[in-house]
Design brief:
The protein is α/β, with parallel strands linked by helices. It is about 30% helix and about 25% strand. The chain starts with a strand and ends with a helix.
């Protein structure tokens, strides 16, 4: 069995939540999914030592104090406990070289953990004309196109350089530091995908593949599961 941690949202005081699609997207006969609590950041390292992979899910806005900025007027509600725990998880996953699939907010946290920064509010901070990034269509509907680097891990997994994906965000990755690289964009230039330059699978995507039913999304999760299985095999060999 491979073990995969799934990050969770704080939806109300005293309540954790994650969409069932997050669990269903990676659940299988040989997978044990664990929904992770937003507890002391120091425990994140113990989680990552015992997990074969990490699925970082979407959610609300991120505290700009994490990248040394004051709150923008358009910043939405934040959950500092989740921010701190997930930052620790991401740093531990990087240090332990564990597979990561980071979705939407998850990609933003992963990028921050590597030393990057982000837009607190795309419509007011992005230089240039934007397409719609918070669609008014059903979640499983692809609302805009993305372009991907032809030599990226992501392209090799899904088998195409262009996809139509869904979109539900007003925050976005801005500066992406090494060892990560930008490998996907929308036509307006907003970052849609990042990946580690040398790790087999540490990937962040801005869209929500867990909500989509297309073959590309299925291939993305299959690639993640394969990386987690390989990680477990290496751990046993050592």
């Amino acid at each position: 069995m491979i073990t995969i941690g799934i990050t969770s949202s704080i939806v109300d005081i005293g309540r954790l939540s994650t969409a069932l699609d997050n669990i269903a997207s990676i659940n299988g006969k040989q997978v044990l999914p664990f929904v992770l609590p937003n507890i002391e950041p120091t425990k994140a390292w113990s989680y990552m030592k015992n997990l074969d992979g990490l699925l970082m899910t979407g959610g609300g806005d991120i505290n700009p104090m994490l990248f040394n900025e004051e709150p923008h007027p358009q910043l939405g509600s934040i959950t500092p406990e989740r921010d701190l725990f997930e930052m620790a998880l991401a740093k531990a996953a990087l240090a332990e070289e564990k597979p990561v699939l980071a979705i939407c907010r998850g990609m933003q946290i992963l990028n921050l953990a590597a030393g990057g920064d982000m837009y607190q509010d795309l419509p007011s901070q992005f230089q240039g004309e934007l397409i719609q990034h918070h669609q008014r269509a059903p979640r499983e509907y692809g609302s805009h196109q993305i372009q991907m680097n032809d030599s990226s891990t992501l392209t090799s997994i899904v088998g195409t350089q262009t996809m139509v994906v869904n979109s539900f965000h007003h925050q976005a990755v801005r500066h992406v530091p090494s060892p990560f690289a930008v490998v996907g964009w929308t036509n307006d230039g907003v970052v849609e995908a990042i990946e580690h330059e040398t790790h087999p699978f540490q990937v962040g995507v801005q869209w929500h593949p867990e909500n989509m039913k297309d073959d590309y999304s299925k291939k993305l999760f299959q690639g993640f599961l394969h990386a987690c299985e390989s990680c477990r095999s290496r751990s046993k060999a050592n």
